[in-house]
C-alpha cells in the first residue's frame, strides 16, 4: 500500500503524508496510554499487585481511549496551533481504530492465540488497503483522503470486534492501573520521539517537502522490515513472562536471543545494501532514487533495533518498566537534541545517522542496566 501511495502522491505530497503519519504515531501512543503492553503482559501472567481479569482490564483500556479521543477532538476544534483542520481530523479518525484493534490483539497475543491474532492483522491490512485503493481510483488522492480511507478500514474491523466481544468501556480507572500504565506510556512516548521526531522537526525547520518525501520512503521501508520484529516480540514476551524465571536464571536465554537478533539483523542489513539500489527505483519510481542512500543508512540501525526488541520484552516481562522508561527517555533526549542542532545545518541526511546512533546508544544502555540489575 505504501508503494501505491508514494507513487501516486509524488515526492512532495508524500512528504506531507509522512509527517501526518508521524503525528498519528504520537496520537496512537496518547490514545493507548500504555494499555497495549499491559494487556499483553497481564494476559500471559497476571501480576499480583494488579490481579484484574483480562476483560475488565480491556474495559478500562477502552474507556481511557474513548476519553482521550473526545479530548483530542475538542483540541482539534479549538485548534490552538492553527493547523489544517481536515488533516487534524483525518489523523484522529485514522488512528483511533488502530489503538482499539491493537488493544484487542494484545490480549490474544498474551493468551497465545496467535492464529486469531494473525487473522485480525491480515483482515485489517486488507480492508485498509482496499479502501485506500478505492479512494485513490475515485480521485480522492490527497494525504487527508488517504488517512480517512485507512480509518474506514480500521473501523470495519473495530465494529466486528466490538460486536462479538460486547465490551463496554469503564471510564473510572483505579490508581493501581495508572501506576503501571504511566511508565509504559512514557516508555512508548520516548520510543516515538527517537523514532519519529525527525520528520516532525523537518516541518518545524521548513525542510523541502521533496527531501522529506524521500526520507519518508526510506523510513517506511525500514518500518516494513521492522514488522518482522513483531512476531519475535510477541513470542519472547509470552515466553519470558510464562517462564516466571528470575533475572539470574533467565539471563543466559535473554542474551542468547539478543545475539541471535543482532546476527539476523546483520544479514538483513547486508541484503538491503545489495538490493536497495534496484528495489526502490523499481517499486517507487526514479523520483525516489535519493531514498536509496538514506535507506541503506537506516538499515544499519535495524540491526540494533532487533536487539532492542529482545531487551524491551525482557524488561517488560520482568516488570522493570520504570527502568525501561528512564533508559528510553535518555535515548529520546539524545535523539531530539542532536536532530534539533544538526538538521538545520546538514539537512535530512543527518537524521538517518542520528537514528542509527540512537538505536546503538539504546542497545548499550539496555544491556548495561539489564546486567547491572541482574548482579544486584
Automatic annotation (TrEMBL):
Membrane as UniProt keyword: yes
Localization in the cell: Cell membrane
Pfam families to which the protein is assigned, alphabetical: Polysacc_synt
Taxonomic superkingdom: Bacteria
Transmembrane annotation, as ranges: 14-39, 60-81, 87-108, 120-140, 146-165, 177-195, 215-237, 258-284, 290-311, 323-346, 352-370
Keywords associated with the record: Cell membrane, Membrane, Transmembrane, Transmembrane helix
Main location: membrane
PANTHER family in UniProt: O-ANTIGEN TRANSPORTER-RELATED (PTHR30250:SF11), PST FAMILY PREDICTED COLANIC ACID TRANSPORTER (PTHR30250)
Protein name per UniProt: Oligosaccharide flippase family protein
Species for this entry: Polynucleobacter sp. UK-FUSCHL-C3
Amino acid at each position: 500500500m505504501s508503494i501505491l501511495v508514494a507513487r501516486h502522491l509524488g515526492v512532495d505530497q508524500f512528504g506531507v503524508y509522512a509527517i501526518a503519519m508521524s503525528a498519528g504515531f504520537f496520537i496512537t501512543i496518547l490514545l493507548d496510554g500504555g494499555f497495549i503492553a499491559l494487556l499483553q503482559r497481564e494476559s500471559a501472567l497476571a501480576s499480583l499487585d494488579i490481579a484484574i481479569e483480562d476483560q475488565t482490564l480491556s474495559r478500562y483500556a477502552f474507556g481511557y481511549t474513548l476519553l482521550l479521543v473526545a479530548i483530542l477532538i475538542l483540541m482539534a476544534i479549538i485548534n490552538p496551533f492553527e493547523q489544517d483542520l481536515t488533516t487534524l481530523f483525518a489523523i484522529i479518525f485514522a488512528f483511533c481504530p488502530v489503538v482499539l484493534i491493537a488493544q484487542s490483539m494484545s490480549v490474544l497475543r498474551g493468551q497465545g492465540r496467535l492464529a486469531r491474532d494473525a487473522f485480525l492483522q491480515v483482515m485489517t491490512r486488507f480492508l485498509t488497503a482496499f479502501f485506500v485503493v478505492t479512494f485513490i481510483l475515485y480521485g480522492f488522492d490527497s494525504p487527508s483522503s488517504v488517512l480517512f480511507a485507512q480509518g474506514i478500514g480500521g473501523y470495519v474491523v473495530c465494529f466486528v470486534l466490538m460486536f462479538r466481544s460486547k465490551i463496554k468501556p469503564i471510564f473510572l480507572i483505579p490508581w493501581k492501573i495508572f501506576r503501571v500504565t504511566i511508565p509504559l506510556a512514557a516508555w512508548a512516548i520516548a520510543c516515538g520521539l527517537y523514532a519519529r521526531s525527525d520528520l516532525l522537526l523537518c516541518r518545524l525547520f521548513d525542510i523541502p517537502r521533496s527531501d522529506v518525501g524521500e526520507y519518508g520512503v526510506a523510513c517506511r521501508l525500514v518500518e516494513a522490515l521492522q514488522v518482522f520484529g513483531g512476531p519475535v516480540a510477541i513470542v519472547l514476551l509470552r515466553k519470558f513472562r510464562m517462564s516466571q524465571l528470575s533475572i539470574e536464571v533467565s539471563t543466559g536465554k535473554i542474551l542468547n536471543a539478543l545475539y541471535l537478533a543482532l546476527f539476523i539483523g546483520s544479514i538483513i542489513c547486508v541484503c538491503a545494501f545489495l538490493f536497495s539500489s534496484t528495489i526502490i527505483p523499481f517499486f517507487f519510481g526514479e523520483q525516489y532514487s535519493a531514498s536509496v542512500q538514506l535507506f541503506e543508512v537506516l538499515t544499519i540501525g535495524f540491526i540494533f533495533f532487533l536487539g532492542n526488541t529482545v531487551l524491551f520484552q525482557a524488561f517488560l516481562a520482568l516488570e522493570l518498566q520504570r527502568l525501561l522508561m528512564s533508559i528510553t527517555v535518555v535515548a529520546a533526549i539524545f535523539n531530539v537534541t542532536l536532530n534539533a542542532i544538526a538538521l538545520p545545518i546538514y539537512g535530512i541526511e543527518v537524521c538517518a545517522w542520528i537514528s542509527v546512533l540512537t538505536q546503538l546508544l539504546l542497545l548499550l544502555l539496555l544491556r548495561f542496566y539489564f546486567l547491572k540489575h541482574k548482579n544486584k
